[in-house]
Amino acid sequence: MSTFPRITSGATPLVFSLLATSLYGAAVDESKLPAPPTRTIDFARDIQPILETSCLKCHGPEKPKGGFRVTDRVELLKGGENGPSVLPGQSAKSPFIHYVARLVPDMEMPPNGKGDPLTTEQVGLLRAWIDQGVAWSEGAAPSKTIAEASPTLRWITVKGDERKFRELNWIPNGFDGGLESFRLREQIDANRRFEISGHTLRDDYDVKLSLEHGDSFFVRAGLQQFRKYYDDSGGYYAPFGGPLATLDRDLHLDIGKAWIEAGGVTPFGLSLKGGYEYHFREGEKSLSSWMPIQPAPDTRSILPTSKAIDEHQHVLRLDAGYDYRGVRFEDNLRYDYYDLAARNTTARTLAESPALSQRIGESSQQHTIANAFTAEAQPREWLLVSAGYLYSHTDGDESFRTGPVDENGGALTAGPAWNAPRLTLEQSAHVFNANAQFGLWEQMTFSAGAQTEWNRQRVFGAINLDEIDLTFPNGITNNPGRGYGDFDRFTAEEKLLLRNTQIPFTVLYGEARFRQETVQEVAGLDAAVDTSTFNFTRDTDTTRLWELYRTGFQVSPWTRVSLNAYYQRRNRDDTFDHNVDTRPYSTGLGYPAFITARETTTDETGARIVMRPTTWLKTTLGYRLVSTDFETATHAVPTLTGGGLRSGEYDAHIHSLNVTLTPWRRLYLSSGFTFQDSRTASADNGNPSATPFKGQIYSAMSSASYILDNLTDVTLAYDFSHADFSQPNQTAGLPLGIDYESHGVRAGIGRAFWKKVKGRLEYLWSYYDEPSSGHYNDFTAHGVFATVIVKWD
Amino acid sequence: MKPRHWWISGCLALTALFALSLSSCSTIERTIVETPFIEGANFVGNKACYECHTNYTREFPSSAHARVHVGDAALKGQTGCESCHGPGSRHIAAGGGKGRFIVNPGRDSTACLTCHVQTHAELRLPHHHPVLENKMNCVQCHDPHGSDIMKASGTGLAMARLNDSCAECHREQARPRVYEHAAMREGCTACHVPHGSMNSKMLTERDVNLCIKCHAQTQGSVVGAGQIYFGIVDHTDKITRGGCWSAGCHPAVHGSNISPNLHY
User: What percent of chain B has pLDDT over 70?
Assistant: First the structure.
């Protein structure tokens, strides 16, 4: 190992220093040291090249061997784990010189095999430098400031569905501006660095700050927010005609976080990191759960709905790590407080008039504490073992309330007013994990791991199935009840991995994973008056067996060709044993207690060939086949025998081609094309409203850039996507398939006006056509982006 | 496979063969995997990275990415690190340092998508996680160095826990409820495509197939052609109005605190 000697731990650096100095000083024959030259040493000319060539590789700013850095004068004189190694004015007594002069056995620097030994002249120069006071010229100090900012102005106009444009492109239309990117980096000295970077645009900003002092200390903080836009329209049913029903308001969620963390390494090797994070989501999002509309004689659920979200999460983290006798210990402690308030309006099951809709309010407050402790050791070069334990516990309250409203959101005088004012939540998990890896860095690697998890959840409380009828004097009919949903789950998971690189130019691998899970679940609802026949009791034992096998290879017999292929099988076998499944008026109607067994098997295979026939052309050709079968068995229920059947099938063929061309140094071309043909079909018993979900997706991505001259470059990018999953079930049901085509073009020209100022002008064109929504979601957008990039250094 | 699949495969294969026919052994240098370019740097192999980045590289041989390497005959499958981070010789010569002559793909998905072409295409579908928009990055959901690629980087134990990666952001959906949807125990990917989909909410399907491929109909002699029973309930008319959740009957797809049938 190329490290300065570690004597022991537990003593003070001063003791180390004296001990190391006296120990080596006494052992070294100083008469063998080369004589220092008498001339004045120039650091940049005489010393810096030696340090860069022979020292910095191991004693640089990050993870220096022996904790000894030669990055600046302060670090050099401070020394490493054994204290000072350079004694100004005393080169003959400096261990640093003894090592580089190779006078200390097993401490030769650079170590054998890590670099050429220093010449006599170089050692002499280092001696003279130390004797002359270890001058470290200002010019050599890496203090440097780099700043860059890219102010931008953007304008996008959309013809057609503006909200759909925003949803699909994640950007606002209209005027936008700000800083597309900015960065200020101050290299204060060799070890200390300050940086602020990010971007600030309309509804989208990201600012990160960091202050680092080598490995020993850092502070980082940041603020990030972006907006996710939603289209406000519902579904489309051609016989009802247009226009598409919309909520007629801009739906969006603002998603973001703010955080600060600090950490470092203590002098005795304990690494610590602590921080606080605040996450939030605020706004209103669309739902894919629609509401019914009933132009006679049909009813179709196509009216849009939305959900207001007010979600906040506060997280405290404390991470610690320590190496002791070759074992790495880590502990990750986390506490979080989660607070959610949400409300939405949804349709009733059959949408009886006048109680057309239900307004729903939900809240959740949870306190979670979790701690993961892991230990990792490498007792032999070929063996790595690790183990860990995670414990988490959550306490919380949930609430739920619903009230009848009409289609315009107005309160109704009659209808269900179910509520759960306070549900108690308790959840605990104990997770154990152990892993072993054999043959580290050898031609054969075998690793095995196991993880067990015991999980207990209790959720219970009052669930009141009250009914509002304000036409009667009392107004509300109370129907108190109690609901609960508890389970104990035990999961054991094992993995086995094998990788072999013995065959020249070939990597072979195999992988197997297994999971066994048992769940004991008890759930029920017990209302005083079971007017809606919702009361039930259920006790189900579930057994789940899951397994995955994967094998494959990568081979590159010629450096211009690489081929990889794999096969994978996943199988899930679930058995549900319904010990109790009762309802007052029938049995076997639990949710989904009518299912007794289910098996899902997925076979997947794929291959990819990568060719680089010339230095300027690279092609990647890939194919993937996925096939899944779903088998389900159901209980016998009154009048129905139940039994097993193939409940579903999924098949997909995915082809891809990617070509990268750089025929001239100035020109870069890249194109990718993907074609997917897939089909999902379910056991529909010939029902004409349920048809297979099948179709093709075509995707193409191309980009080109060309450097016209030293000042100017042009870029052009084109994206294309088309899918046809339209369904022919309009007469019997609601076609939910999609048929769309989109094109995107982005063309730009960049020019350097001065050495540190560049400009970029881009034109954006986006086109979206969706026949399956009656073309009401279509749009065409044009945009112009003007950006200036300014640099200082 | 339908005939047109063979057509497309054939065309792609011919294109590739044509490209191969242009090859000249003398012009090839070394890389097949398109590694990030670092001017003047050479490949040094995983062992050199191990010298300093022990915490990342000790477990790396068990990673799916350890199966990838650049086509350098002298290093035989030992260039997994540099496949994504670029050749490391200049980084080492400079004494290391964050971003010094090395690529950190954690902040930029470009290095990942160079190989994961199909994932790149999925991320361009209408409904997708905003990776290409630089609002997310790959390591938020995947650990590129560990033995479990389906685990978020730098979290918890060595193996992923059910839905943990998704719940980091989608806590609202993943939180416990009185009446759970059993599909949550199969994982979020039972119903959602993780990278991108043409369907809203990144669903695998947008019609009743999403549900009834698992919630199979009950069979019996009284069930006539075209009728669909789930449990004891005849759903024949109900499914004419749309999908099980989109028709307003079972919208609480992630579980409910009041309705065992996931009505609310």
Answer: 83
- Give percent helix, percent strand, percent coil of chain A, each to the nearest 5: 10, 60, 30
**Rounded-to-integer distance, Cα B213 and Cα A683, Å:** 7
Residue B181 falls inside a structural domain: yes
Residue with token string 């088309």: A722
Cβ of A641 within 8 Å of Cβ of B182? The answer is no
Nearest CB partner across the interface for B61, out of A440, A449, A461: A440
| Assigned domain for B229 exists | yes
Residue A299 with chain B: CB contacts under 8 Å: 240-241
Coil, helix or strand for A118? coil
- Among B5, B24, B263, the residue with its CB nearest the CB of A349 is B263
Domain presence at residue B184? yes
Q: Which residue has the higher pLDDT, A667 or B1?
A: A667
Distance CA B263, CA A358 (A): 11
H and E: helices and strands count for chain B: 10, 4
From residue A343, how far is each of A464, B136, B244 by CA, in Å? 19, 27, 21
pLDDT at B21: 43
Domain with B213, as residue range(s), is: 176-241
What does DSSP say about strands A144-160 and A779-792: parallel, antiparallel, or unpaired?
A: antiparallel
- Copy the structure tokens of residue A432: 């154990």
Report ipTM (2 d.p.): 0.86
**Residue at A499: amino acid letter:** R
Name, of A302-316, A473-487, A519-533, A626-640, the range with top average pLDDT.
A302-316
Q: HSE of A666 in the Cβ direction (CA atoms, 13 Å)?
A: 9
Please give the C-alpha separations between residue A386 and each of A119, A376, A433, A515, in angstroms, as whole numbers.
45, 4, 8, 20
Cross-chain residue pair B159–A451, CB shorter than 8 Å: yes
What span, in angstroms and rounded, lies between the C-alpha atoms of A390 and A370?
Answer: 7
CA–CA separation, A105 and A86 (whole Å): 19
Strand A595-614 versus strand A561-582 pairing type: antiparallel
Total domains in the fold of chain B: 1
Relative to beta strand A481-500, strand A475-477 is unpaired
**Residue of A287, A167, A240, A155 lying closest to A768 (CA atoms):** A167
Residue B168 in any domain: the answer is no
Residues in CB range of A324: below 8 A, 6 or more apart? none
A400 φ, ψ (degrees, to nearest 5): -150, 140
For residues B93, B97, B99, B102, the Cα torsion angle rounded to the nearest 10 degrees is: 30
Q: Are A381 and B54 a contacting pair, CB within 8 Å?
A: no
